[in-house]
Amino acid sequence: MTVAIILSAGLSALVLLLALVLPAITSPTVPFGVRIPARRADEPAVLRQTRVYRWRVLASGIVTAALGVVLYGVTGETLLLPLTVMAIVGVWYGCFFLANHEIRAAKAAGVWYDGVHQGVAVDTGLRTNPPRFPWLWLAPAVVVTLATAVIGVLSYASMPETLVVHYGANGVPNREAAKSVGTAFSLVFVQIGVTALLAGIATAIVRGGRFDLDPARPMSSARWHRRYMSLTAKALLGLVALIDLGMLGSSLLMWTGTVTAWAPLVVVLPILAGVVVVIVVLARNSRARDEGEPETGLTHRDDDKYWRGGLFYINRDDHALWVPRRFGLGWTLNFANPKTAMLLAGVVALIGLVITLRFTG
Predict the structure, then answer these.
(1) pLDDT tens digits, 322-335
(2) Closest C-alpha to 200, from 237, 149, 151, 248
(3) Would you list the domain boundaries of the chain?
């Protein structure tokens, strides 16, 4: 079994596992991105769509992965394997949108919000006195980046005159470039960019997000949001440290002239491990605990009009940049906020930097 197939199989399995688990850890009041009253969480339509969604994801995901491996075996084209993972993600979201549509239809037909007392809970302390940014958690990423830069400077004179700057999915070097500062330290620049980007996102989550407090138990919900924001920021900073570690390993291979079929794993495994840890940690803390607070009798307002397909939040009247995701873990952007375009431009610029440094030498 080649390295490419191992990577593709691992990523495909991770995507399928995440797709199957997410309905169980998403709030029961937003099944598949549809806002419903808490008393409707066990409606037959919701339970049925959850079962159907899982069967669709599992069957179509296995078929897609198998087809990708077969086509790779026939053609030998390694690009088919990452495309297979992307196809599985596409199938996953296709199944999600089908479930979203069916639950929306059942909600409208059953008039589920008829007679429900809707409300919005706000805790201004979350914005005026947000959780402290976990600076200590940023230290590992900074240390790894500095270590990479220092090692590069000390070993620059002894580096090969021609550096391997890219490996194919099968682990075979497919691009080389003459030694230069831009080539040798290309991944250091990527480390700096990724660290700054994810640290900025973590800061925005802690200080610039909107908080979907439960009006039924507003005080318990506010305390949970405070803990969850801090945990999310720490998880992102831990992930960026592992990304930087993968970049350090890849830089060492390039600087020493080491050629190995397992080179892609040097980068992918730390990142994959970080993603798994982030998913597990956030999943275990994805729901507020009942702290004995009496219920107010209110339920979340029906705000589906601001969510396109249950995934994309578009609300010009909401000045928050980040809002809690309706399906899955963590946060998503308010696509009506002008700052979103600036953030996405930064991501595109970082990708452009990676392409420029890695492909032009």
Answers:
(1) 788 888 767 788 88
(2) 237
(3) 1-110, 121-361
